[in-house]
Amino acid sequence: MTGSSDLRGSARAAYDFMTEPATVRELPPQGIAPREALEAVQSEVLLDGDPWKNLATFVTTWMPPEGRMVIEENLYRNFIDHAEYPRTAEIARRCVRILHGLFHGVGEPECPGAACAGSSEAVMLGALAMKWRWRERRQKEGKPIDAPNLVYGADVHVVWDKFCRYFDVEPRQVNLPKGETTVPPDALRDQIDENTVGVVAVAGTTFTGECGDIEGIDAMLRELAGKGLEVPMHVDAASGGFVFPFSHPDFKWDFRLETVKSVNTSGHKFGLVYPGVGWLVFRDDKQLPEELVFYEDYLGEKDPTFTLNFSGSSSFILAQYFNFLHLGRVGYEAAVQAMDTNAAALAKGLAAIDGVENVELKAPALPLVIARVSEGEPFSEDDLVGELARRRGWLVPAYELPPDSDDIRIMRMLVKIDQTRELVDALVADFGASVEFLRKRGKGEGKTPAHTGVGY
Ligand SMILES: Cc1ncc(COP(=O)(O)O)c(C=O)c1O
Q: Does 332 score more than 70 pLDDT?
């Protein structure tokens, strides 16, 4: 095309849309047709990685069409309008009750929790409740309330640091013992004092998918309570909350442990809903201080709310309920079993490749595999994940463990419901071919190989 002056009408618009630089700052004076706007957005996100091959994320990347229909058909239903959408509010309460039961809560508390945007909001609210309860107790005892602290290991998600910074709580973060992947109860105990609002344990850490000694933390906290220092535990089960009840029903990490007063979990991780929905679940009514509940007199209805945000779509909450109905306990069990089976197949496949080795995980752990490059290889984890991305677009994160285990660099691969055995086998094959290629390249022999298999 030599010029555009002879183009007219829709051809002209299409030419402009295809050839003009993206809108990056100012609102464009003129709009474009919805089809073109759609094209513009979709062609741009093509430059992102493929979520299906994103082995870094815990977040759901596949739902059945009926689940997607629930989402699509309820996007405009603002969750906060409880007066107008009382059934949706009731469905959210049902989800919280179902989780309270799944986590072995007893009885039927009036306010057992809240639907949230994700685990991050649930963590903020759960931690705020701990802070308020601590303050209430201290005020009753006539003691100072100016220096609250929160005790947790370096294996927690960054959201806990965020909470401490935003809500003015001293973070007492305990480093991992060198070579370990979780923090032992004794190391946490050393940091606890009368200003500790709570202790955080993780069921399924972001770094390795392991759990640490949650029962041990409970025993330690009960011992302290016996000496007059009562400190609650919050379990961050962002991932594990929808895994361990099905994969390890006898593993005690939840309200079966006396000191566990609140739990968060992400519906959009192993709850198998697209982002974003998370849940905060309290052990009983006593855990939610009344001052944190806002009674909003809005559009004719007095409505108790416990949230950080206001408006938001009901879609993902309703999709969670859809999953509860559709999958039931047996369905979640089957899904978790399938993920565990494929994670085991991936681990076995990688174990057979000379040049990479698996990091043994302490059970119970999330369905994921952690591997390292063997000592003495002429390439690093970064080289390997780069090669995997180049071959077939696999997105595998390589990172260091938190301090003091930060000399350990790992690659972590989530095996979620959309990672079928075929995909796992393809990933193993690509690992093998990548190692071979990188070794040759290390000797100065490597040429970018031509793909010759079926489909190339
Ligand atoms: C242990 C843990 N806690 C909290 C979060 C934050 O969860 P969300 O992304 O649902 O806000 C994550 C996310 O990966 C996590 O792994």
A: yes
The residue whose CA is least distant from atom 16 of ligand 1 is: 206
- pLDDT for the residue numbered 305: 85
Res 2: pLDDT = 43
Whether 238 is in the pocket of ligand 1, judged by its Cβ within 6 Å, is yes
Provide mean pLDDT across the span 203-211: 98
| pTM for the model | 0.94
Task: Give the alpha-carbon dihedral of 147, 152, 155, 161, to 10 degrees.
Answer: -20
pLDDT at 1: 42
Residue 295 alpha carbon to ligand 1 centre in Å: 28
Residue 434 counted as domain residue: no
CA of 445 to the centre of ligand 1 (A): 43
Phi/psi region, residue 104 (left: phi>0; alpha: psi -120 to 50; beta: rest), is left
β-strand 233-236 against 260-266: which pairing, if any?
parallel
Q: What is the pLDDT of residues 371-421, one digit of tens each?
A: 999 999 999 999 999 999 999 999 999 999 999 999 999 999 999 999 999
Range of the domain at 261: 67-323
pLDDT category at 455 given cuts 50, 70, 90 is low
Number of domains, the chain: 1
Q: Quick check: 13 pLDDT over 80?
A: no
| Contacts with 200 (C-beta within 8 Å, 6 or more apart), sequence order | 150, 151, 152, 153, 156, 160, 233, 234, 235, 236
Q: Does residue 58's CB lie within 6 angstroms of at least one atom of ligand 1?
A: yes
Q: What is the number of the ligand 1 atom nearest to the C-alpha of 120?
A: 11
316 in Cβ contact with 162 (< 8 Å): no
Ligand 1 atom showing the smallest separation from residue 206 Cα: 16
Supply the residue whose CA is at minimum distance from atom 14 of ligand 1. Answer: 206
401 in any annotated domain: no
* Cα 211 to middle of ligand 1, angstroms: 14
Ligand 1 near 278 CB (within 6 A): yes
**Ligand 1, closest atom to CA 278?**
10
- CATH code at 198? 3.40.640.10
Q: Work out which ligand 1 atom sits closest to the CA atom of 269.
A: 10
Mean pLDDT in the chain? 94
Q: Is 119 in the pocket of ligand 1 (CB under 6 A)?
A: yes
CB 437 within 8 A of CB 387: yes
Lowest mean pLDDT among 110-114, 135-139, 202-206: 110-114
The answer to whether residues 185 and 231 touch, using CB atoms and an 8 Å cutoff, is no
Domain presence at residue 45: no
Q: Please indicate, yes or no, if residue 439 is contained in any of the structural domains.
A: no
